[in-house]
Amino acid sequence: MKKYSESLADRVRQRFAVLPNITEKEMMGGLTFMYNDKMCVGIIKDELMCRIDPDLHEACIEKPGCRTMDFTKRPMKGYIMIDNIGMKTNKEFDYWIALAIEFNKKAMSSKKKK
User: Fold this and answer.
1) What is the pLDDT of residues 9-36, one digit of tens each?
2) 41-67 burial, b for 16+ CB within 10 Å, e for fewer?
3) What is the CATH number of the domain that holds 53?
4) How many domains does the chain have?
């Protein structure tokens, strides 16, 4: 049984279909979408995780359906979770995906394991 929403994964796949260098990895009990070898968005259960510019974090968590990611009970600035309330419409969904794609250009790549 999948630990993440397959319909949400398909929604992300459709949005990322136009981009090069997208890979999917099952991790953290969910599914992560890597863009240019950098974590961009993920799905944990039925929530969307977005890696965004930490400078935008405080403004984002004020929006309905958005909260700070605290996967291991440690809040992570620059990582947000969006629930169904925050991404009901395609416009809302695209907003979060666009933030993650935009930050990806500046994001540091995680170190490759040897």
Assistant:
1) 999 999 999 999 999 999 878 999 999 9
2) bbbbeebbbbbbeeeebeebeeeebbe
3) 3.90.1150.30
4) 1
pLDDT of residue 12: 98
Identify residue 31 by its one-letter amino acid code: L
For residue 26, the enclosing domain spans 6-104
Structural element, H or E, at residue 12: helix 6-16
Q: pLDDT value at position 111?
A: 61
What are the φ and ψ backbone dihedral angles of 46, each rounded to 5 degrees?
-120, 25
Among candidate residues 86, 111, 109, the one with its CA nearest the CA of residue 99: 86
Can you name the residues that pair with 45 across neighbouring β-strands?
4
